[in-house]
Amino acid sequence: MTQNAPTRILDGVVLPAPGIWKIDPSHAEVAFVGRHFMLTKVRGRFTKVDGEVHIADRPEDSSVSVKIEMASVYSGFEMRDDHLRSPNFFDVERYPWATFTSTDISWAGSGGQMTGDLTINDVTRPITLEISYLGHARDPRGNDRAGFEAHGHINRENWGITWNQLLESGGMMISKEIDLEVNLEITRAT
User: Is the pTM of this model over 0.70?
Assistant: First the structure.
């Protein structure tokens, strides 16, 4: 590996070179999937995501910090998005940002697990995400880019997001369990 190479080989796997990598907000998505009437999946995403990834010599010593603008929630239905922004859910007037800060990473090959603190509505709880490295590319401007995706599951009530409605059939309108899907493209800063 040359001093400025954007990648390195570690245990036979090509990985991004150590350094500071910035999240590209125009190619970042934090998405969620819940169930409506416990039947259909409803998908949403946040369109304004920023942060950085510090890739260490040893992948398990790396760290991630992410900031999400909660008012940027988009589910494809304006009335639902307005409800998600309300005090019933994200209360974006009082809590405009959610954050994630990694606390532990385990790594093998091109993936692993990352545990971190997720703060929503001023409540911080740990979550664990399965993470995968997707590869490297150099864009037409000469910037080095790397792609990662992550998946996890949370119970939204652990963050005080408890709004729901009881159905005549006895079930609830909205699932407590939420699937998280994260796709990040990062650019090398140092």
Answer: yes
